[in-house]
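TA notes, week 10

Several of you asked for a full example with nothing omitted. So below is the full record: structure tokens for the whole chain, then the designed sequence directly under it. When grading your own attempts, check the secondary structure regions first.
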């Protein structure tokens, strides 16, 4: 539950952009200006006008001036926030598809240019959230097991089609490409620590040592011997 303590911040003269780190619960409040929010890292739960919502790397939100909103975020959540004077297009609560140029905070775009991209971005219907941190921990704890997309979708309580679409929208790659990267990351780390190729393959979900060796050459351009020599 997000606590409610009403207070309103003064209006702005011009748009301002900042990257903010959030952790834990933040009391509900309102501003005399609109806010544009989306996550650069992690996901932040919101309560906006008394209704639950969230922002992540693919779904952002426009919060009109004077709208009560509170936050709940896990540690190390980073959110790009654009504080914006009241203007046409910012007077209604809106969920939008985060434009790719805005996903990189080192962008040289001005706050006004960033706001313009948001105003042009497609409106999104309410999305089912994906807790990627929880999903990644769950998979990494059992990389030796089979992880078809249907199993991943079941964990998220979505159909395969819904999960695949939402996953690609959020992560920028397919679930199986993501899984392959997790397996190889773990394998590389274990081989650098001196674990035998065959044992590493079984721990990381490969059918055989030769299958892992092939994947390392194809996707990472290295051999198991080269990795062990990096110890």
């Amino acid at each position: 539950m997000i606590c409610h303590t009403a207070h309103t911040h003064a209006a702005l003269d011009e748009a301002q952009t900042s990257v903010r780190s959030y952790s834990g619960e933040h009391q509900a409040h309102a501003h005399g200006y609109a806010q544009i929010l989306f996550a650069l890292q992690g996901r932040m739960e919101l309560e906006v006008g008394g209704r639950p919502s969230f922002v992540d790397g693919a779904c952002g939100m426009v919060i009109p001036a004077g709208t009560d909103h509170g936050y709940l975020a896990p540690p190390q959540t980073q959110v790009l926030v654009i504080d914006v004077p009241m203007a046409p297009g910012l007077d209604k609560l809106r969920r939008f598809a985060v434009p790719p140029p805005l996903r990189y905070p080192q962008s040289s775009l001005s706050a006004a240019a960033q706001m313009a991209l948001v105003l042009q971005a497609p409106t999104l219907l309410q999305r089912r959230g994906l807790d990627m941190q929880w999903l990644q921990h769950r998979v990494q704890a059992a990389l030796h097991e089979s992880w078809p997309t249907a199993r991943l979708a079941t964990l998220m309580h979505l159909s395969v089609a819904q999960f695949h679409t939402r996953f690609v929208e959020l992560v920028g790659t397919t679930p199986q490409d993501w899984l392959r990267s997790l397996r190889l990351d773990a394998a590389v780390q274990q081989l650098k620590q001196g674990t035998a190729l065959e044992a590493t393959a079984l721990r990381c979900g490969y059918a055989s040592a030769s299958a892992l060796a092939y994947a390392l050459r194809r996707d990472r351009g290295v051999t198991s011997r080269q990795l062990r020599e990096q110890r």
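The chain has eight helices and eight strands. Use that as a sanity check on your answer.
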